[in-house]
Write a structure and sequence with these properties.
Length: 147
């Protein structure tokens, strides 16, 4: 059964600070000072990396046992290449978003390297955020409201 997940984002008075939230949880997003932000929160692009790493971590712990891996620890290191000249409109030949995202999964386990590799593949195959990034998802603007 399909579930609809909702979120909201609203600009705050200072700099590029944006309050974002889903359910009863809130985050503060911002931009670094070099991009005219106040550096009070991670950038939306950094939040995308965090969302991917968070989703992969949840998947690791959700599926490790069923995949025969005793997972004693797990973390993900991520990095993405983003050229701000794209979204700043300085270079029309530069993509607005990441040109590449790289990550490494770090397992603490007694399992073999082959078992960890199989679990890593399973995580990649089942991570919803990874699926969205790898395969894209249609973005549908449903309305423009002037208040």
């Amino acid at each position: 059964m399909k579930e609809t997940i909702t979120a909201q984002a609203k600009k705050l008075p200072e700099g590029f600070q944006v309050a974002v939230g889903a359910r009863n949880f809130k985050l503060l997003l911002d931009e670094p000072e070099a991009l005219n932000g106040t550096d009070k929160g991670m950038s939306p692009a950094e939040a995308v990396l965090c969302a991917l790493g968070g989703c992969q971590t949840i998947c690791a712990y959700s599926f490790a046992e069923s995949q025969g891996v005793d997972l004693q620890g797990f973390y993900v290191k991520l990095e993405g290449d983003l050229d701000p000249d794209g979204f700043l409109g300085k270079n029309p030949n530069v993509r607005n978003g990441f040109s590449q995202i790289r990550f490494s999964m770090h397992f603490k386990t007694d399992a073999s390297s082959d078992q960890a590799e199989k679990l890593a593949n399973y995580i990649e195959d089942h991570c919803p955020v990874g699926d969205n990034l790898s395969n894209g998802v249609p973005l549908v603007r449903t309305d423009v409201v002037v208040e």
